[in-house]
Amino acid sequence: MSASARTVAGSNPGGTDVLALQGASFSYGHTVSLAGISFSVAPGEALALIGPNGAGKSTLLKGILGLIPRMDGELRVLGRSPAPTGSIGYMPQGDDLDPQFPVTLGQVVMMGRYRALGWLRMPGRRDREAVAHALDAVGLADRSATRFGELSGGQQRRGLLARAIVAGPRLLLLDEPFNGLDQANRDALISTLHRLKGEGVAVLVSTHDLELARAVCDSVLLLNGSQVAFGPRDQVLTLENVQRAFREVGVEMDQHTVVVPGHEGH
Which domains are seen in the chain, by residue range? Predict the structure, then answer.
């Protein structure tokens, strides 16, 4: 599947894609970090972003969020640019929450409502119901009052996913969400993502885990400073394409992961 391929099983060419990019390039300062990106994601579709360290996966997510400038091309969310307020949820690789800070899981998830609340309005019944629904969606409904720092690492990651979805976004961006999770938390997160897709949420997942990509994602975008390949998952995830994305680094791949000797693989 070539880098310019545009047809993806499940996509909607009729103009109702949740996210669409055409020839988009992003930069830090005056240096272009990621160039020539063209793809679309339809409601209920999940796209895996795969490439080596420094390939531009996080850059792309931040570019979609508007955190770094787009230098060229088009980017539309729900047909609009910039993205409509509240339309995107984001779960970063890490979080700077101090585990000793006395804040409960429920309060962390409520942070995802602050943009809609503004600084002057206190959370109301609808906000509390949204937090409860988000916690239920990630299987943590009974841990709302638990101090965030007392949760396991996997539970914290699921709590951050709840924070990302509590405002009801149409597009969800996840940066390496499965790093360091045990199997139980992986399974819970996979189940949550399937549920969100069933509700029509479009999902972008940065990952080096092929098992995750095959379990959750319908399409794949291979990156390494530019677009290497994009299309239906099983057509893009070939050894030849992955080797092109990782270039001169030796690559092995199986159903579980991309193995890059001497590198971390993401």
Answer: 1-87+170-266 (3.40.50.300), 97-168 (no CATH)
